Amino acid sequence: MEIFKSHPQWNDVKKICGRLREQGFTAWLAGGCVRDGLMGEVPKDFDIATNARPKKVESLFNKTVNVGKAFGVIKVVVPSGDIEVATFRRDGNYTDGRRPDSVELATPQEDAKRRDFTINALFYDIFDGEVRDYVDGIKDIQKRLVRTVGLPQDRFMEDKLRILRAIRFVAQLDFDLDQTTYDAVCLLNHSVTQVSWERISDELTKLIQGKKPGRGLKLLRDSGLLDVLFPEMAFDPKAIDWFAALPGEKNKKLLGWIFLISLITDVDQHDKTCRKLRFSGDFMEDIKSGLEIATSLRIFDRLGAPEKRKIAAEPLIDTAIRYLELKGEMSALVKAFIAQNRTLPKPFVEAADILSLGITPGPQVGKLLEEAFDAQLEGKVQNRGAAMAWLKSKTQQKPSP
Ligand code: ATP
Ligand code: MG
Predict the structure, then answer these.
(1) Pocket-testing residue among 120, 191, 199, ligand 1, by greatest number of atoms within 8 A of Cβ
(2) What's this model's pTM, rounded to 2 decimal places?
(3) How high is the mean pLDDT of the chain?
């Protein structure tokens, strides 16, 4: 496929497949990269499937990492990044609703059958240029249809994450969801809570970053999944439009999650839901900060000058503005003020100045610095001299202990 040639890993992919092939093994591209290639899109990464056993794969390459011998997956370390080489397998029985109990070497047909959706179950032989399709995946790509390999109910019962993946792929690729597959999503929606929150969180982030997140959110809501995952949310149908606007946004991951979290009306619940979703501390802070800035922007006219200036200089101000704009709640006047005041001035006085007035080091110093800076932002003091005079009069009024 012509499109693969523009991928930075293409040379390494060719080398790895070539090495396996010269040893007499089959080495095919598999899964998402074949799907993307057939759609004329550059894949994120490449996965290789082979009939060489993991031990053999390890022996053929200089540097490898065993990412799960039980699953037969070996990462080959190459200059362009790691490439996963997986041995064809059929999955054993499912007991915990997620992981297969055992993995055996299998035929390519069997390996295709254990994959989640027909569009993800294709192989591509880079040497003869043939797509190996055992599940009518090419037809579904042409029809733009997400359909399980095999009976949806059975496949969802085996691995509940697939329920969410079905909707994620609809959003990611702008595909339709096959009706029988959709019926099974609705029927089994309650069991999605058996999946770890890390994986739920990852799938939702991919949905947010897809081509049609609005479609994804609508399906999550219509299928009942949203209620199962987030009973704490009060859904607002307008959120589908907010989501629909995400693809054009710079900070879509953060913005998308801010939209979702904002549907939780009880603000005290926000932290709990962020923790449930296993967000990093930084990401959680960003969500909180975005929502707090938006709250301040809504009541901007009632704030004092120093506060206005500080909000205008917040790192996440643009995200908060886009959040309100997409909701149709952003005032043009406030936006203009912010555009004029994106950076804060350098403070006229610093801690050493305050200590020079005989103030003992401690929390008092920080408080005075803040007050002096506020006086500066309010325009009460116009230069360093005035700021020092202001400080002196202030500290003389209230001598420090
Ligand atoms: P993306 O473009 O998001 O990476 P992808 O199709 O590569 O999409 P991955 O999650 O990276 O998706 O998985 C790689 C492949 O492994 C899939 O294409 C699919 O064939 C198979 N797969 C992944 N997760 C499952 C699952 N839960 N059940 C069955 N097969 C799966
Ligand atoms: Mg992938």
Answers:
(1) 120
(2) 0.91
(3) 94
